[in-house]
Amino acid sequence: MEQTPVTANAPSAAAPSSAAASAPVPEPVQPPDRPRRIGGVSRPGVLSLTGAAASALCATVLLYGELAPFSGALGFTLTAYLLFLSIYAVLTGFEEDQQTVRDRVMTVVLWTAATLLFSALVLVVGFTAWRGREALPHGNFFTQDMQAAGPLDPLTIGGIAHAMVGTLVMTTIALAITVPLGLACAVYLNQIPGRFSRFVRTIVEAMTALPSIVAGLMVYAVWILGLGMQKSGLAAGFAISVMMLPIVIRAADVVLRLVPGTLTEAAEALGAPRWRTVWHVVLPTARSGLATAVILGTARGIGETSPVLLTAGFNPVLNTDPTSGPMVSLPLAVFNFVKSPQPAMIARGFGAAAVLMALVLVLFVIARVIGGRGPGHQTKRQARRTARASRQDLARFDEPHAPGLTLFEAGSPAEASAPADPTASGEND
Fold this sequence. Notes:
Blueprint: H1 15-22, H2 43-67, H3 73-93, H4 98-131, H5 140-143, H6 161-191, H7 195-208, H8 212-226, H9 233-257, H10 261-269, H11 274-285, H12 287-302, H13 306-311, H14 330-338, H15 343-371, H16 380-398, H17 407-410, H18 422-428
Family: Belongs to the binding-protein-dependent transport system permease family. CysTW subfamily.
Pfam families: BPD_transp_1
Region (Disordered): 1-37, 374-429
């Protein structure tokens, strides 16, 4: 039986496989990292929102119309919104991770809250302006008082000039008291920590929730009953300042805490005393925030009615003297106008409310102009003033080093100790 000889070339068949196994395997090419997009509008996001809204509306209609004996517009809206959030979370979870789902859902919730707040603001302002549209076009509404007008008189007679003047006078008195005291107290709480400052901060926080009628009763008992003074705009200004003071202190304290500590440390490292650091560094840096604090306090005090009713009384005649005689404000005038059943008086009340909102807006604009921009930003006038001061400083620095100006002409004290000119001595020789 013949055997097949084994050739020497037999192992060579396995050589290519072993060589291929020993060759380095190229690593797969990794795609470049792309930042995850967490904001903006995308097509899948729009489709998810639309689908979730449609599904929630259909499910709510089916639930309220066929499956359950539910009724009511408020319940329908809340049920549809909760179903919308749930369906939107499920649809987003098909393509994104859990963190992105939470981010998208919370974004929808925040946008919903912002929309509701803006809608409420537009509704209040629009409703007030619409109800007062009959009184606002008349010029006498802004130039006359109610001395010669009665409940049955048309809108062409009488106005709210006395209430506008009274509001401005009372607010000015309250601001003159509140702004210095409030800012000084906020600076004290921020710059001088300690037990007493914590006690003062606690008292300020407690005064924030003080009812306005209590402030009016306090001023009425002390100023009118105790001291025997008459009701006037000055007493109302005192009562309004009591309501404005804690708001200004708390808001200013929060703003002063946001000033970087490195600024004060740098000023004190240069040798500036504490009062100069506060006056030239802390307060200018927080100027825009302090203006906002004053605005918040003014908005709280300018709309108070009960303190003015107890301390200023009611006067249908224009009174510009805050120290004698009753004086009326716009909130109190609105309160008295809308109590009347006559349509003309109700229109005057809503017109006065619209003027009050416009007055708050004007005060807000004035405060923003006075407060200026934030730290590090200059207006055009400030930039021109800074550039002019820089040019003056540069000219003052370059003046002693002008060409052809000797030490004697410059008036330098170094001329006494300067050595004699050797060339001049040679000429003398």
